[in-house]
Design goal:
The protein is of the alpha+beta class. The protein has eight helices and 34 strands. Helix 5 crosses helix 6 (320-342). 34% of the residues are buried. Bound molecules: zinc ion.
Length: 497
């Protein structure tokens, strides 16, 4: 409750009236000060009666004077320029050990830019980064277009302390405002100096990886990062948040068939300031030899299959052997590129559970990563690495989804013929090729074991079989590991869950 206090208002009836009559009496005695002016009014002619100085001028000169006066007024209005210059710059910045460049775009459309300055204020002082004057003059202004300037911020060279700082930019134009010093635009950009690399702790990782094989790792990073994951042999495998564990990250990675082997796998991370951190754990890289095989190209295969496929793919080459060479090299490369684009949209969480399924009741006719030498009339005419397993069952056998996931692609894909690609999350995908028919469409969810199509010989296939492949990131891996539920538990799921 609020108390209302103070004196009650009293009315003094007649007080105002008494004051008024006193004033009236006073006025009768003292002549008002403006009485004298009335006397002058008759003697001083009013302004509008003063003959203008241009009265005697010729008409043309009068018009010219009026036009000149108008122009002067217009110039004055224009040169006072009510618009401040514009400064375009990033909203906020994080400055790391590596330093960075900050792009400024300055412009003033009316009177033009006159000067720009930029200063950095930090906990221990101030530094001038930019001070520039632009050509121009008070009368006509200066350059109207936009000007770009790059500020190079080098925290290490300047010995900046870590913490908050500010980047202040002032741009002035050539307007006559502010006593001819120009109108100023000021921009303050908050900046954080972070010179510490992200710290990575590996929580769980496999002790060994076979060439052509894979593994999963769990780790923790002490700050938010732009990019993190496993680096191995020149390949990069992105990390994902571990479901239900704040701050923890997981990544599935591979030791590719062609990866370099000079260093063990490392977790790498880059923070917002561009600071790089890395951490390795002791994981042995196990080398492995892959088979070399010879495949004889029959006349029938070349004449029937290859020429038919060439026509389908729009390869204009009447010679069957040359058509095969083109398809096996150029079309294969094109298809691999397309597959990398398709699998780029993997979900950031595991969709799979349990060992991967193999085509039931099937025989292996070709293994992972073998080198194929294609022979014709006793000579090697082409080569390729076979990055999957060929599995043969009865013709048009039903193909189960190797694990749960989402359909990334279902359709014709060059040498792979009718092809289905499933996403199992975390960059893990499986590929089913040469299908005679497909039972799923892009975007569909599939359960482990659900029929996705039937085997066939579409694309570059000599007979009815399933070409089955698994990719980790952009790297093909040996499906043998993924078919093995125990390996999957020990080397992948143990780190993920
Ligand atoms: Zn194959």
């Amino acid at each position: 409750m609020e108390e209302t206090g103070g004196e009650p208002q009293t009315n003094a009836p007649g007080a105002a009236a008494r004051l008024r009559s006193a004033l009236r009496a006073l006025r009768g005695r003292i002549p008002p000060f403006w009485r004298k002016w009335r006397g002058w009014r008759g003697r001083i002619p009013p302004l509008w009666r003063i003959p203008p100085f241009w009265r005697g001028w010729p008409r043309a000169a009068q018009i010219a004077a009026a036009a000149g006066g108008g122009l002067l007024l217009a110039l004055l209005a224009l040169r006072l320029d009510v618009w401040t210059p514009s400064i375009a710059a990033p909203g906020e910045l994080v400055l790391g050990l590596a330093g960075r460049e900050v792009q400024l775009e300055l412009s003033d459309s009316l009177s033009g830019l006159r000067s720009v300055s930029a200063r950095l204020r930090h906990a221990e002082g101030e530094a001038q980064l930019l001070s520039e004057k632009f050509a121009g003059g008070a009368l006509f202004g200066g350059r109207r277009g936009a000007v770009q300037r790059a500020l190079v911020l080098d925290a290490e060279a300047w010995g900046l302390p870590e913490g908050a700082a500010q980047l202040r930019v002032v741009a002035r134009d050539w307007s006559w405002s502010s006593l001819l010093t120009g109108r100023a635009a000021r921009l303050t950009i908050p900046l954080r100096v972070d010179l510490s690399a992200p710290r990575i702790a590996v929580l769980r990782g496999p002790g060994a990886v076979r060439r052509g094989g894979a593994g999963a790792v769990r780790y923790r990073i002490d700050e938010p990062v732009l990019r993190d994951g496993v680096s191995l042999g020149g390949d990069f495998f992105p990390g994902y948040p571990r479901p239900g564990a704040a701050g923890e990250r997981i990544a599935i990675f591979a030791f590719g068939r062609n990866a370099r082997s000079e260093a063990p796998p490392r977790i790498i991370a880059e923070d917002i300031g561009g600071n790089h951190g890395a951490s390795a754990w002791s994981a042995r890289l196990i080398e492995r030899k892959f088979e070399d095989t010879a495949i004889r190209l029959s006349r029938r295969f070349l004449q029937d299959k290859v020429l038919q496929l060439a026509a389908q793919l729009g390869v204009n080459e009447p010679n069957a052997l040359r058509a095969f060479q083109f398809i096996n090299r150029e079309q294969r490369a094109r298809d691999e590129k397309r597959i990398r684009q398709i699998i780029a949209t993997s979900e950031p969480r595991p969709l799979f559970a349990g060992g991967f399924l193999r085509l039931p009741r099937s025989a292996v006719t070709s293994r992972f990563a073998e080198r194929r030498n294609y022979m014709s009339e006793g000579a090697r005419v082409s080569q390729a690495i076979h990055y999957g397993y060929d599995l043969a069952s009865v013709a048009e056998a039903e193909v189960p989804a190797a694990n749960s996931g989402r359909v990334l692609f279902a359709g014709p894909l060059g040498i792979y013929g009718n092809c289905v690609i499933l996403d199992h999350g975390l960059g893990l995908t499986s590929l089913y090729a040469h299908l005679s028919s497909m039972a799923v469409a892009k975007g569909e969810r599939v359960e482990r074991g659900a029929a996705i199509g039937r085997t066939g010989s579409t694309g570059l296939a000599g007979g009815d079989h399933l070409h089955f492949a698994i990719l980790v990131g952009e790297t093909y891996v040996d499906p043998q590991e993924w078919w093995d539920a125990k390996w999957l538990r020990d080397f992948v799921e143990s780190a993920l869950r």
